[in-house]
Amino acid sequence: MRVVKSVIFSVFLLLFVFLANNSYSITNFFSRIPDDTVKISSKEFQANLDSLLNNFFVSQSLKVNLNSLYPAQNMDKDIIPQFSDSVYIQRLQSLPSIIDMTYNEKVRAFIELYVNKKRKHVKVMLGLSEYYFPIFEEILDKQGLPQELKYLTIIESALNPRATSRVGASGLWQFMYTTGKIYDLQVNSLVDERRDPIKASYAAASYLKDLYGIYKDWTLAIAAYNCGPGNVNKAIKRSKGKTNFWEIYDYLPAETRGYVPAFIAANYMMNYYKEHNLFPQKIDFPTLTDTVMVDADLNLKDVSEALDLPLQQLRDMNPQYKNDIIPGNSESYSLKLPVNLVTTFIEMEDSISLKSKESMIKYTEIAPHKNYLQISPNDEIIRVTHKVKSGDNLNNIAKKYGVDVAALKEWNRIKSKKLKGGQKLIIYTTKKSKTSDNEKSTNSAVKTKNDEPKIDTIKHEVKKTEKPSKEIKDENPTKKNKKTASKKNPEKSTHKVQKGETLSSISRKYDVSINDLIDWNNLKKDGKINIGQSLLIKSK
Q: For the ranges 335-344, 357-366, 504-513, which has the lowest average pLDDT?
């Protein structure tokens, strides 16, 4: 019996010595088994990591020979160093931070995720940090906030400005729609300022400052940033008033339980990556950029072509524009460009704007059964915003503005036909030019001197092959016979088949029957036509 007691005592003594030498509490020791929280948060984080690799600058940079990034004096790039808990504890305690950097098994799990399992992604994030972190640091400094808060973007978005969570949070700082609105981030069909690195960083700094003002504790403020102050308040209440993150840990939402450990691990990884044989991936962001203010509607595709700049590169520099459209007509918007192209853009801005004005309405010709947007020579293309009211639907809105339903859905990235009250829709239409009393028009047709209607529609031009004879009263039988002959021979024109058109839609356009179209063009009875095919049209 004494021998057994002696053995048990020796075991506990050794355990005590081990814990003392590692500055590790007994409570932490028995909580070293990772829970499902780490797995849940890891899945969300890994999804952001995977989407990061779709970034243009990242995909281009990954083509670089990685061997060139490892100096000869460094260890082999394939070696993954391993460290004990005591090393992790000492390193975290050495960080110059006013935020508590507690170490436990949950933190270790995230450290290993960064430095062992996702090394390729970490190298990319290290490279991207050289571009983004100076932006964050300057804004955090202006707001008087801890610099280490910049590492929140590592776990929020993996430094991908287009990252979108499963619940709809967006951008580097992952703002929800409502929170973004509270902090003055504009979100509409064309612009999402949650993706704007500068504006979103100011909003995040303000939000974090407000949260710290509530809790006077940075780990609780960080937890509230993830799940909202309401959930943190509930956890405090359920824990009978405790105000330490680790003491209310079990009462927090599952994702938030892993959020603070992930943040601590990100701090460790971004400061000690060299010790883990990790090196930044060189990212080919332009070394110098500048911002110009745009006060006209522009399409990024037109800017890309004019400046000979890859479109995806331009998108990555301006991720806030969801549909490649800068709605500058409504207010001034920023456009970030490589500094060497700014002067060229300013010189070409007017011509780019003119081209964009035409491309803005290209989606009015998407599907059959269209209401074509009729454009007279002096008509002005304008962009309007329609606020959805009770009883509104896509069909009656399209009819009101004289555009196609497919165009409405394309402009506003709408997949469903359902609309919500208060929803704002972007619509491109025309502002009709004023005409004098004797310049009458029918169905947006402009009469020529010969009373021949001239219709100028997008992509659809009717080419006249025979002009009608003037009807002049004359009793000369010869002339009268000519007049009669002209009536018997109908006016002819040709129509070039466009994508999405059918014989049915063409017959309605020219007010003729499908059978006539088949007869005039020797078509098969199935009425099959091909894009680009020229059809003969005879007026009645």
A: 357-366
Q: Is 335 helix (H, G, I), strand (E, B) or coil?
A: strand
Domain carrying residue 500: 463-538
**Domain final residue, candidates 461, 496, 515:** 461
Look up residue 153 and give its amino acid: T
Q: Which two tokens stand for residue 459?
A: 């992509």
Q: Residues 448, 419: one domain? A: yes
Residues 369, 355 share a domain: no
Q: In this structure, are 519 and 389 located in the same domain?
A: no
* Angle ∠(236,242,245) on CA atoms, nearest 5: 75
What is the SS3 string spanning 448-488? CCCCCEECCECCECCEECCCCCCCCCCCCHHHHHHHHHHHH
Whether the pLDDT of residue 458 is over 80: the answer is no
| Number of separate domains in the chain | 5
Q: What is the 3-state secondary structure (H, E, C) of 175-233?
A: ECHHHHHHCCCCECCCEEHHHCHHHHHHHHHHHHHHHHHHHCCHHHHHHHHHHCHHHHH
Query: What pTM was estimated for this model as a whole?
Result: 0.62
The string of DSSP codes covering 338-353 is EGGGHHHHHHHHHHHH
pLDDT value at position 101? 96
Q: Which residue has the tokens 């700094």?
A: 205
SS3 breakdown of the chain: % helix, strand, coil, rounded to 5? 50, 10, 40
- Residue-wise pLDDT for 253-309, tens only, equals 998 999 999 999 999 999 999 999 999 988 877 768 899 999 888 999 999 999 999
Pairing of strands 453-454, 445-447: antiparallel
For residue 312, the SS3 value is helix
**Is residue 243 domain-shared with residue 297, that is, in the same domain?**
no
Number of other CB atoms surrounding residue 104 within 10 Å: 20
Please indicate, yes or no, whether residues 172 and 300 belong to a single structural domain of this protein. no
Q: Which strand (E) or helix (H) includes residue 378?
A: none
Largest interatomic CA distance in the chain = 142
Query: Same structural domain for residues 263 and 117?
Result: yes
Report the CATH number at residue 495.
3.10.350.10
